[in-house]
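Today's session is about reading a structure prediction critically. Students often jump straight to the picture, but the first step is always the sequence itself: look for stretches that repeat, for charged clusters, for runs of hydrophobic residues. Only then move on to the predicted structure, which in these notes is written as discrete structure tokens rather than atom positions. Here is the chain we will use throughout the hour.
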Amino acid sequence: MTKKIVWLFCFFTFLSNANNAITFALNGGRCGDCLLNYIKAKWVAWKYDFTLYIEKFPHAQKFVLCQQEHHNFRRLRRRFNKLVKLTSDYHLSRNTFCKTFFTSSFYFCAEDWGCVHDIHTWHGLYNNLEFRQLIRKLVVPVDNYEQMVLPKDCLTVAVHVRKGCGPDPGVSSQGILKEYKKRGNIVASDKSHPLKFPPDHFYIDSLRLLLEHVGDERVFVQIFTDYNDQQKIIDHYKQQVNDERVIFADAINNNFIADMFDMSLFDCLIRPDSSFSKISELVGDHTIVMCPLQSKWKNNTLYITEIRLKDKESMFTYKKEENNEEVTFVNITC
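Below is the predicted structure for this chain, in token form.
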């Protein structure tokens, strides 16, 4: 009982002396969206020495952050002089405000960030090794799991293939949308979010570009996907890439937590514009990351027309060019 009284005294003393604080509003997204939301708010709290209060979100209890961070209670807000919805951090500093409670959102974009959805343009956050190390200690599973054992004698590549299975409406290119017709007028996932649900050719093109980039190295490829027939994807990619340097691993069937963190262990990551695999990138230390930049629909078919390749040294942009004979990617990096 004495320990409990001491803890309560310290807790309320801390609250009474609180200066500025921040939390984040949930956007209704799943775990990946919520974790990105948390990381943005954590960046502001870390950068400006604010207190962070986290919201409950799906599967939050499965991560160490849920045990380490303060939890948001509505009554806390009475202890602050002002409530502010954060749209950018251009006006923030450690001393500008006094006892202000900020709320950031999934679409929060700091002033010096190039794009709210492009983590490679989150200057400061992405390139700050100290902050990234902090995130790696917090965005980590509470329970130990059997990590994937990767080969040491070749370049390892994780490929995150999203097909819109499960709660998503599905992708029109796979005909998965037909399973959802009973729900009424549904927009296919690749129609509403083409970069989040790119077609197979994006992954095949990316693997080919990666092989050009790394030269003669042997490459080990592991597919991570929500699709219920993983082997079908593996066989298709293997046939299309058709390169003796590439070893495609067998299909795996892990839970999403294991997939998220196993993807962070690889040398390279090929990912869509998905919060799930962006988390893997932020907690990982990949040598190369590839993602889609631009898309277009032509004759009801989705094409990825620009691909980014980011390595430790620089970023390259590959653009698809068409002529009468073939379709190829050329490096347009300035």
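Discussion point for the tutorial: The longest strand covers residues 288-298.
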